[in-house]
Write a structure and sequence with these properties.
There is one protein chain. A hairpin with a 2-residue loop joins strand 6 and strand 7 (115-123). The strands form seven sheets. A six-stranded mixed β-sheet has the order 8-7-6-9-10-11, with helices on one face. A six-stranded mixed β-sheet has the order 21-20-19-22-23-24, with helices on one face. Helix 1 packs across helix 2 and helix 7 runs antiparallel to helix 8. It has 639 residues and is of the alpha/beta class. 30% of the residues are buried. The longest helix has 41 residues, at 5-45. It contains 15 helices and 27 strands. It folds into five domains: 16-94, Histidine-containing Protein, Chain: A, CATH 3.30.1340.30; 106-219, hypothetical protein tt1634 (3-Layer(aba) Sandwich), CATH 3.40.1520; 229-340, 3-Layer(aba) Sandwich (hypothetical protein tt1634); 355-468, hypothetical protein tt1634 (3-Layer(aba) Sandwich), CATH 3.40.1520.20; 481-599, 2-Layer Sandwich (60s Ribosomal Protein L30, Chain: A), CATH 3.30.1330.60.
Length: 639
């Protein structure tokens, strides 16, 4: 049966249309695949592996996130080299621009007699008026200069803590430079004395928050020494200094080197200060010490420009005359020599001609021996009662004629020196003043030597045998922080603080060690302490860090539970970053899993110049006249 013609024509057209659609679809797929492959290959060659390519008919759609605008444009250009640019559809994103790194905020505060200046970069959120008002309250009469700039960035961590501590520290420092930055405060200051320097360092260290690093550089001015004194003795045991003064470190080293050549034994102390009578003081000291060494035994005392050389009683007179003559001719100008060769003591059946005073550790004083008249007896008794207390003095002196004219001066000067000791004995004879005893002040021997040199006058001899003993600590005084750290370390040597495996719970058998540590810390008071947590290297580093922090915080909480004041403590986890043993062995890993109690100490301060005025010049300019170049320079060892 044949189809009607119209139907046959329609069927042919339908079949042709279907074939055309199939051919067109195949052609489009080929074009899409070819375009996509070509563009993807071009992008990969340019290093744009972040870009995605998708063909949609004749369109080529690019997606993905470019790191920056230039890279996105480069990707479009690469795609345009393979297909017509009109077919490239850009749907790529650009990564947001990273925030600019915030600036380093810091301020520097300078306080001196001219006022207070503050300079630096601070966050815009800082209340500058309130800050300036706080600085003004430190000294209402001093001008405050605001030289700060601000930047609109968030306040960094520990910025407020550092600034608060800097202002608090400045209230106790009338002459200081303080630099404060987030987490760090550096202090450079001048104290009035060595004692004030020690007190300031201790107070500033204790008051610092536990998480704040501090650097301290506090200097004390050189003391004014009056009279400028040096006293050197040589006996059968060797040489020793009773007093030593020098105007500079170079002068001190020169004097000490000469003393070592002349038999110096044991420790010594040589004070560097102001008041030297002549730039050639060290040269005069050198010549005098060497002359005494040639004589053999005796003492040399320098009080300002007066030099007294006292030889031993059995010294050969001809040797004495020769050495004294040479010394008189070689001493620098200004210096005057007084030489004494003691006469042999005659036998006195009436007993020794002497005055004695004893001071007991309880403060009781007994006066015995000879005085020249009733006036001196009353004067001695009154002086002693004024110096030691009216109820503590017992007088048993007797009047004797024919005493030396300077007897009263020697007795009163000796009592004045005795009053500086904790306990001791004074003996005054026609030839010498002898003082023995114990002092709780390390420099009292030099102080007494200078005082006796000034009061007794030229050509007068005296002997000092004074021992320094550290004063007993007050019963309620806390131990030194270093001692506390050592005691805690001793406890941990005997019983290590351990935890339950993989947790921050303190093991039951470590409770006793923790109790001992708590007892020590309660005695020590508010010391700055960092409780450090450490782990071994097993596991992921991030987890070890978190575990060490949790364990350090757990110890801090345990101490709080035992009523230990912990406001000056901080807990810090160090994870596996600070091993003390090999992590490849079980024994090493056990050592690395630990808790440390670390005393936070001030850091050294480098005194660098800044935009503010430099700190005041040093109190003393080094002496222009250096010692003789021919002398040997040796390094001194001071105690």
């Amino acid at each position: 049966m044949r189809l009607p013609y119209p139907i046959a024509v329609a069927l042919i057209f339908a079949v042709s249309a279907v074939l055309s659609l199939v051919a067109a679809g195949f052609s489009v797929s080929k074009i899409e695949d070819a375009s996509e492959l070509a563009v993807r290959r071009a992008l990969n060659l340019q290093g744009h592996d972040w870009a995605e390519v998708e063909s949609d008919g004749l369109r080529v759609v690019l997606t993905g996130t470019a790191p920056d605008e230039a890279t996105r444009f480069n990707a479009l250009t690469a795609a345009g080299t393979e297909v017509d640019t009109s077919r490239v559809i850009d749907e790529m994103d650009v990564a947001p621009t990273a925030d600019l790194t915030p600036p380093r905020f810091s301020v520097e505060i300078l306080r001196n007699d001219s006022g207070i200046s503050i300079i630096g970069l601070v966050p815009a959120s800082l209340d500058r008026d309130e800050l300036i008002d706080r600085l003004q309250r430190l000294d209402r009469d001093a001008p405050v200069s605001d030289l700060m700039e601000s930047a609109d960035y968030p306040e960094p961590s520990r910025w407020d803590q550092a600034l608060e501590y800097a202002i608090r520290a400045l209230s106790n420092l009338p002459r200081a430079k303080i630099s404060a930055s987030p987490g760090l405060v550096r202090i450079t200051a001048i104290a009035d004395s060595q004692q004030e320097k020690d007190r300031l360092e201790q107070d500033l260290n204790r008051e610092a928050p536990p998480g704040l690093r501090i650097g301290l550089s506090i200097s004390a001015p050189r003391p004014v020494i009056t009279p400028f004194t040096l006293r050197y003795l040589i006996n059968e045991d060797g040489g020793q200094f009773d007093a030593c003064s020098a105007q500079s470190e170079e002068a001190r080293d020169l004097i000490v080197a000469t003393a070592r050549e002349s038999g110096l034994t044991g420790p010594y102390s040589c004070t560097i200060g102001l008041g030297v009578p002549s730039p050639r003081w060290p040269n005069a000291a050198q010549l005098s010490i060497r002359a005494l060494a040639e004589i053999g035994q005796g003492s040399i005392t320098m009080s300002d420009a007066d030099i007294t050389l006292v030889a031993a009683q059995d010294t050969d007179p001809s040797l004495f005359d020769r050495i004294v003559g040479e010394l008189e001719n070689t001493l620098p100008e200004v210096f005057v020599l007084h030489a004494v060769l003691p006469e042999p003591e005659p036998d006195d059946p009436a007993g020794p001609v002497e005055f004695s005073a004893t001071l007991s550790p309880e403060g009781l004083v007994q006066l015995r021996g000879r005085v020249s008249d009733e006036t001196l007896r009353n004067m001695t008794d009154s002086f002693a009662r004024a110096a030691f207390g009216s109820e503590r003095v017992h007088t048993a002196t007797r009047i004797a004629p024919d005493l030396p004219a300077e007897w009263a001066v020697r007795v009163l000067a000796g009592l004045d020196a005795l009053s500086l000791l904790h306990n001791g004995a004074l003996t005054v004879t026609p030839d010498t003043v002898s003082l023995t005893g114990i002092s709780h002040h390390p420099d009292v021997k030099a102080l007494i030597a200078g005082m006796l040199s000034e009061k007794l006058g030229d050509a007068q001899d005296f002997n000092l045998s004074i021992t320094y003993v550290e004063p007993p600590a007050p019963k309620d005084a806390p131990p030194d922080p270093e001692v506390c750290e050592e005691r805690i370390a001793e406890v941990q040597k005997g019983s290590k603080i351990a935890f339950e495996p993989g947790s921050a719970t303190v093991a039951a058998d470590s409770r006793d060690a923790l109790n001992q540590i708590a007892d020590i810390l309660r005695e020590c008071g508010p010391i700055r302490l960092e409780i450090q947590g450490h782990t071994d290297s097993q596991g992921r580093e991030e987890m070890n860090q978190q575990l060490s922090q949790a364990r350090a915080q757990s110890i801090l909480n345990e101490l709080r539970g035992r009523r230990v004041p912990t406001s000056s403590f901080s807990a810090v986890g160090y994870g596996e970053t600070q091993p003390i043993a090999d992590n490849d062995t079980e024994e090493g890993r056990e050592e690395n899993r630990r808790i440390n109690f670390h005393l936070i100490r001030p850091e050294p301060v480098a005194n660098t110049e800044t935009g503010l005025e430099a700190m005041e010049a040093e109190t003393e300019t080094p002496d222009a006249d250096a010692p003789d170049a021919g002398s040997e320079d040796q390094q001194s060892e001071q105690n």
